[in-house]
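Dear H.,

Thanks for agreeing to be a second pair of eyes. The structure we're designing against is below in token form, covering all 115 positions.
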């Protein structure tokens, strides 16, 4: 959660009553974008919706890992399974698009990046 919110549990805004988990959970009820670091996602980003979906999925998974009752916490096998089912991060989608498009050389011929 610290990576996406840029807030440590030791920040003065957190206490016994307001934990990082509670703060993220409350935000998830309305708009989780409120707690995501503004450097990671901004409403003016061209891929805002993809970033929002990815951040929401990651933070929901983090919430599952931090339930207050240890026996209700998700195990690491399930964490890995859930990670594989997440939507790909927007940057990965951009790179896949870039790597799979044909390239036109100086002669006007199309060549695939990967041959």
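And this is the sequence the design step returned. I haven't edited it by hand at all.
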């Amino acid at each position: 959660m610290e990576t996406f919110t840029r807030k440590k549990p030791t920040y003065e805004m957190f206490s016994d009553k307001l934990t990082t988990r509670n703060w993220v959970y409350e935000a998830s009820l309305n708009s989780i974008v409120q707690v995501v670091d503004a450097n990671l996602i901004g409403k003016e980003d061209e891929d805002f919706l993809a970033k929002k979906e990815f951040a929401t999925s990651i933070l929901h998974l983090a919430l599952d890992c931090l339930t207050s009752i240890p026996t209700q916490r998700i195990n690491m096998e399930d964490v890995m399974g859930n990670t594989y089912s997440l939507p790909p991060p927007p940057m990965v989608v951009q790179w896949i698009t870039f790597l799979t498009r044909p390239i036109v050389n100086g002669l006007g011929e199309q060549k695939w990046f990967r041959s």
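Two observations from my side: The longest helix spans residues 48-65. The longest strand covers residues 102-104.

Warmly,
E.
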